Amino acid sequence: MIVLKGELWRKSAKAKDKKQKRKEESERTDRCWKLVDEADRVEDVLKDFVSFKKFTRNGLNLDLECFTSANLDPDILNWAFLLTKENMQNQYESNWGWNDKEKLKELKEDRIKFLVAFDENKKPVAFTSFRFDLDFGEPVVYCYEIQLINSVQRKGLGKFLIQILHLFAIRYQMHKVVATVLHTNTASRNFFIEKLKYTTDDTSPLDECYEIISKSVTQRN
Ligand SMILES: CC(=O)SCCNC(=O)CCNC(=O)[C@H](O)C(C)(C)COP(=O)(O)OP(=O)(O)OC[C@H]1O[C@@H](n2cnc3c(N)ncnc32)[C@H](O)[C@@H]1OP(=O)(O)O
């Protein structure tokens, strides 16, 4: 009888422990979603980073602006789509295939934000599209695309744009910046992995044509 009581007590303590852990996990998820939603509601995430609104290096003199998918000029959206197609179609075709409609839909998705670099003639020359998101329970800045026109590549602009995404991650308490790269895309792999020291993310699948890579920012919620 005494043994039975002890067993029952242990079982109920275990159940309580499990319930408490579930409660803590759910509170943590709520806190993280709150952070993501707060960041998402900010129309101009670049507004706090005045000194990052210009890129004047290696012969480039560019102005940077941030847009939500709702307030992005349709002409710039179309330009971003065509540039992505020009840069990526061959890569995609030898992997998961290129589809105009799918790519346009992805670029227009709710909650996508755009960081765009313009030259002195107000022409767009580079962009990164990104989203504040909860990815496998972690608040992240997910970099969907980073695309530069050929003439501005390899001048440090890509690195600058990704550094800004890291500043957004720190400012809005996201844990890391995440991106997807194709195994066959040497330029993007060299850029993210060799140059920026991104590593394979824990969530990256095995045996796929792509890899999920990430780089942490130091803080944790
Ligand atoms: C999440 C995604 O969107 S993945 C797809 C990335 N986009 C593309 O592949 C489209 C075409 N390329 C580009 O738009 C740009 O070149 C990017 C985004 C890859 C890099 O931006 P850049 O401004 O050119 O890079 P940045 O000057 O900051 O750094 C250059 C480094 O990136 C790597 N890199 C960039 N382009 C190449 C290339 N064609 N071949 C090999 N390595 C390259 C190298 O490590 C290079 O270092 P190095 O110049 O010292 O050799």
UniProtKB/TrEMBL annotation:
<dbReference type="InterPro" id="IPR039949">
    <property type="entry name" value="NAA40"/>
</dbReference>
<dbReference type="Pfam" id="PF00583">
    <property type="entry name" value="Acetyltransf_1"/>
</dbReference>
<dbReference type="GO" id="GO:0010485">
    <property type="term" value="F:histone H4 acetyltransferase activity"/>
</dbReference>
<dbReference type="GO" id="GO:0043998">
    <property type="term" value="F:histone H2A acetyltransferase activity"/>
</dbReference>
<keyword id="KW-0539">Nucleus</keyword>
<dbReference type="InterPro" id="IPR000182">
    <property type="entry name" value="GNAT_dom"/>
</dbReference>
<keyword id="KW-0808">Transferase</keyword>
<dbReference type="InterPro" id="IPR016181">
    <property type="entry name" value="Acyl_CoA_acyltransferase"/>
</dbReference>
<dbReference type="GO" id="GO:0005634">
    <property type="term" value="C:nucleus"/>
</dbReference>
<keyword id="KW-0963">Cytoplasm</keyword>
<dbReference type="GO" id="GO:1990189">
    <property type="term" value="F:protein N-terminal-serine acetyltransferase activity"/>
</dbReference>
<comment type="similarity">
    <text>Belongs to the acetyltransferase family. NAA40 subfamily.</text>
</comment>
<keyword id="KW-0012">Acyltransferase</keyword>
<feature type="domain" description="N-acetyltransferase">
    <location>
        <begin position="96"/>
        <end position="196"/>
    </location>
</feature>
<dbReference type="GO" id="GO:0005737">
    <property type="term" value="C:cytoplasm"/>
</dbReference>
<protein>
    <recommendedName>
        <fullName>N-alpha-acetyltransferase 40</fullName>
        <ecNumber>2.3.1.257</ecNumber>
    </recommendedName>
</protein>
